[in-house]
TrEMBL record:
GO cellular component terms, semicolon-separated: chloroplast stroma; chloroplast thylakoid; protein-containing complex
Keyword set includes ATP-binding: no
GO biological process: photosynthetic electron transport chain; positive regulation of heme biosynthetic process; post-embryonic development; tetrapyrrole biosynthetic process
InterPro entries xref list: DUF2470, Haem_oxidase_HugZ-like_sf, Split_barrel_FMN-bd
N-terminal signal peptide: 1-24
The name this protein goes by in its record: DUF2470 domain-containing protein
Entry keywords, A to Z: Signal
Species, as recorded: Phaseolus vulgaris (Kidney bean)
Domain (DUF2470): residue spans on this chain: 242-316
GO terms, molecular function: protein-membrane adaptor activity
The organism's place on the tree of life at top rank: Eukaryota
A Pfam match: DUF2470
Length: 346
């Protein structure tokens, strides 16, 4: 269960005052000061504008990250804030690029639809199991009978996220035999726990990938080089359990996040987390009068594993709790744009 540490600002104020009153403050790490400043004075998530449904997923907002540096000993908070240097990133990432999402989906899914053309030139799609070569994301198959090679093919893959969203991708390329089938045999064994003959291994040499955030939404084309060079999300194996845990045990926190981190002009009746990755998490919120919306809330910094995601969520929850009770000034950057969702499901 995610930890709730809603203890109020008093202990944090004492701790910060103690650090700032000692000569050893210069020896403190910058990261420790950033953590204290973040928890106590609301330097939370960077400002991010989410792309509406009609915008392409490759656009990035002009977000900024604030980073305070060169703290002196025995300095007051006001003086420190006035002399702080701001480190600005004009295009800070708050959402994985489509190539990374495609690689993640290929790692999470184990079945898809392989489409080829018949001798009559008609499209034919069949369900297949597939594995993914980890270095470049090449999809591979095991066929019991010999298949035609060097033919144009596509593999369609989708992954349902708690019945709320179904991201998908279509890998286009050439179905062929690999030059070194032995190394693909071990990939298949790791994926499905079974031995296969190397002569039954086939791959798709990827030309391009169509990435879609959900059903009935416009897709984004990913080049083969971007796909090969991207890395799947490090939280992919723990994301499902983490989202389940939060939706089960932290419902009040999710509703509070809508009030604190999102700029809303209506009352949220229900909120659920859809998915989480290294840069933040997606939520779906419902209003009885406005409808259903999807919103992206970024983490204040990138996480690399489930433990880091839990810790960051707890820190954001603590800050939101203090802001809601007026223990903190509500100077928290808010997400400005919502994405309307056609589906009424939540």
């Amino acid at each position: 269960m995610l930890e709730k540490r809603h203890t109020g600002p008093f202990f944090l104020s004492f701790l910060l005052a103690f650090y700032l009153s000692t000569e050893s403050v210069c020896d403190l790490s910058e990261e420790m000061l950033l953590q204290i400043q973040t928890r106590q004075f609301g330097a939370a998530c960077p400002r991010v504008k989410l792309a509406p449904a009609s915008a392409t997923a490759t656009k990035r907002s002009g977000s900024v990250w604030l980073r305070r540096r060169n703290w002196g000993p025995k300095c007051s908070v006001a003086a420190a804030a006035s002399t702080a240097q701001l480190e600005v990133k004009s295009e800070s990432k708050t959402k994985p690029f489509p190539a990374e999402v495609s690689r993640t989906l290929m790692e999470l899914a184990k079945v898809g639809t392989l489409c080829t053309l018949t001798e009559e030139g008609l499209p034919l799609g069949t369900g297949v199991r597939f594995a993914v070569e980890p270095e470049h994301g090449t999809p591979l198959f095991c066929f019991s009978s010999s298949a035609n090679t060097n033919i144009s093919s596509s593999l369609h893959v989708q992954f349902e996220q708690f019945g709320l969203r179904t991201p998908q991708c279509s890998v286009q390329g050439t179905l062929t035999k690999p030059q070194d089938p032995k190394r693909f045999v071990s990939v298949w064994r790791k994926r499905f726990g079974e031995e296969v003959d190397q002569d039954s291994i086939y791959i798709i040499a990827v030309d391009r990938v169509l990435q879609l955030e959900d059903i009935q939404e416009d897709g984004v084309w990913v080049t083969s080089s971007d796909y090969r060079n991207a890395q799947p999300d490090p939280l992919r194996d723990s994301a499902h359990n983490l989202v389940t845990e939060i939706n089960t045990n932290n419902m009040e926190d999710l509703t509070r996040f809508c009030n604190v981190y999102v700029d809303l002009d209506f009352l949220v009746s229900e909120a659920k987390m859809i998915w989480v990755d290294r840069l933040g998490f997606d939520m779906r919120l419902s209003s009885p009068h406005k409808g259903v919306f999807e919103v992206r809330i970024p983490f204040p910094r990138e996480v690399t594993d489930g433990k880091g995601a839990k810790s960051t969520f707890n820190c954001m929850s603590q800050l939101a709790w203090e802001v809601e009770r007026n223990f903190q000034h509500s100077h928290v950057p808010k997400v400005k744009e919502l994405k309307p969702v056609r589906s009424p499901l939540l």
